[in-house]
Amino acid sequence: MSGIYKTDSSDHKNLHKIPDDFSNRETRIARLRDLREDRNSADYDHLANEGSLILMVPDSVSFAREFLNDANGYLSAKGLENVL
């Protein structure tokens, strides 16, 4: 993992590139894919509504907070401080 990111949509194909030793890796990858699908529905499906979401809004917010907290802890354990 290089730490390099792009601002175009091609970067989203790298969701599976979470480090192998990241806690609950496979579950996190699945949730990130769900969030991307929900975002795409919200952006491009004109018939979509809140009931169309894979994850409800409070669950998405909760996941995002937990993931960022765990990512910060993971990076800190690897010697990187205050990156998120």
Q: How would you state the average pLDDT, rounded? A: 85
The tally of beta strands, per DSSP, is: 0
Q: Identify low-pLDDT runs.
A: none
From the N-terminal CA to the C-terminal CA, the straight-line distance is 16 Å
How many helix segments? 2
Radius of gyration: 14 Å
Largest sheet: none
> DSSP strand (E) fraction?
under 5%
Structural class by helix and strand composition: mainly alpha
Task: Label the overall shape.
Answer: elongated
Q: What brief labels describe this structure?
A:
single chain, 2 helices
Write structural notes for this entry.
This protein has 84 residues and is mostly helical. It has a domain at 23-77. Helices cover 49% and strands 0% of the residues. It is elongated. The mean pLDDT is 85.
Task: Summarize this structure briefly.
The chain is mostly helical. The protein has a domain at 23-77.
